[in-house]
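Note to self: user wants both folds in one dump. Writing first protein now.
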Amino acid sequence: MIIDGEGLILGRLASSVSQKLLAGESVTVLNAEKIIISGSKDWAYARYKQRVDRASISNPRDMGPKYPRRPDDIFRRTVRGMIPYRKTTGREAFKGLKVYVGIPKEFEGEETYPVPEAQPKHIIKSVELGKISQLLGSKF
């Protein structure tokens, strides 16, 4: 199943993708940099910046936990938090997820599956995942 993430809300999209993964389907998400986070840009940046900085807060020499900066990896990490990743079923389901920035050549012209529950309804403030990723220092 191929999903175009352009203009879809991060949490709702990740929730529906995780349900499909646990049902045994393989899911490919395109345009990860255009997925929307609802809320102000300052709030979203502060939330993800705090996660990225966690490694140096506890112990500067101990370089973990690692939190992603690229938009495709941020989406993968969000989906991973919604499945039982530490169990065998969750780990096998997570292997069925592929996320891309932009649209690769092998997926051009392919039909995408709509996700109506992830469409924005009444959002006043929002920011794209690609913008947050650039603020975190990603060079995607």
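First done. Writing the second protein, which came from a different request thread.
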Amino acid sequence: MADGRVGQLIDTVAWVRIEDGRILCARPRGKNIFYIPGGKREGAETDLQTLLREIEEELTVALLPDTVAHVGTYEAAVHGPDGGTVVRMSCYTADYRGTLAASSEIEEVAWFSYADREQVPPVDQLLFDDLLDAGRLA
């Protein structure tokens, strides 16, 4: 940045769950925007540990660790007024067991197509673009 300040990096992991050309998104309580499910690591957690914990906390399902596969890492400016803050989102697919349900942290879950791209933050939009290019998102 020109004024010498260094922006903050928010390091997150996300679960990419696609069914019938739509991707699972979640809207946290008190927010007006949807996100790819996941979140920030705690302490020295690995991506896998963070992913398993966050998805169980948010969607009440258990991801199957042996099925987790990295699909891409994206970086973009954070959504909102925090200029200079960048979000890095490491994205993984995985199978799960259990029944998908919004936890107390999550107000709403939805299955989005590419037409819903404007309802997610910039870093998620990069993932949407790649999934569309790959023919995985309707």
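Dump finished. Worth passing along: The chain has a mean pLDDT of 93.
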